[in-house]
Amino acid sequence: MPIEDRENASVITHALAKDTLSRIRSKEMEQVGFRKGLVKLGRICGYEVIDGAMETEYVQIETPLATTTGERVKGLDDVVIINVLRAATPFVEGLLKAFPRAKQGVISAGRDESAQREDGSFPITVDYVKLPEISEEDTVIVADPMLATGSTICTVLDYVLDDQPDPENLIVLSAVSAPTGLLRVDEEFPEADLLTVSIDERLNDEGFIVPGLGDAGDRAFRTK
């Protein structure tokens, strides 16, 4: 199966997703290759969301030769993608290849790495928020390539769900995640489906995923 259910999350096991993730993990992967890899991974994940979370319906089709019955995906016009700046930008670019008509929201959220709390979480600073209206029919995908402590995602979900109706599907999508972060998000937002390509081993003392990707934003944008 392309998606496997685990204790606190579902894992995308598509062979191309695993291959792409393995390639971009390498410290030898340079900026352009890393960014393109995140785009490719986002596209693959988008297709897996369609296959695993969205329904289809039968429709009548007139081909040049005959009338036949086909199958179409329902709800492709009812998708909202939330881009957690900045690391998610290439990841979202790939998602948009699967959902070209999606509404988009942007949240700039960064953690204060100098102020780690005793429980391992971090205070989050939100500098910019621009979200579309969300309806009960929507599939909402909150995209961030790395789900580490869960601090950023929990803050983002607070904004996404504030004064909005509960969407039909609420998906938190990551490339790599840590067990600690998955547990935190699952406890605070049990209505969210957590979907990732890899559940990594642990967090280090600085709150980074091990083995992880390093800093996905720095690697994608060639900053430090």
Structure description:
By secondary structure, the protein is α/β, with parallel strands linked by helices. Helices cover 32% and strands 31% of the residues. Strands 1, 2, 5, 6, 7, 8, 9, 10 and 11 form a nine-stranded mixed beta sheet that branches. It has one domain: Rossmann fold (3-Layer(aba) Sandwich). The protein has helices at 15-25, 31-53, 88-98, 151-161, 179-188, 216-221, and strands at 3-5, 10-12, 56-62, 67-73, 79-85, 103-111, 124-130, 139-143, 146-147, 169-177, 193-199, 202-203, 209-210. The relative contact order is 0.17. α1 (15-25) packs antiparallel against α2 and α2 (31-53) crosses α3 (88-98).
The CATH level-2 architecture is identified as: 3-Layer(aba) Sandwich
Q: Which H/E pattern describes the elements?
A: EEHHEEEHEEEEHEHEEEH
- What do the pLDDT scores average to? 94
Largest sheet: 9 strands, mixed
Low-confidence stretches: none
Shape: globular
State the total count of DSSP E strands. Answer: 13
CATH topology: Rossmann fold
CATH top level label: Alpha Beta
Helix run count? 6
Whole-number total of structural domains? 1
Derived from helix and strand composition plus strand pairing, the structural class reads alpha/beta
What is Rg?
A: 18 Å
User: What percentage of residues falls in helices of 4 or more residues?
Assistant: 25-40%
Percent of residues in beta strands: 25-35%
Q: Between the first and last Cα atoms, what is the distance in angstroms?
A: 38 Å
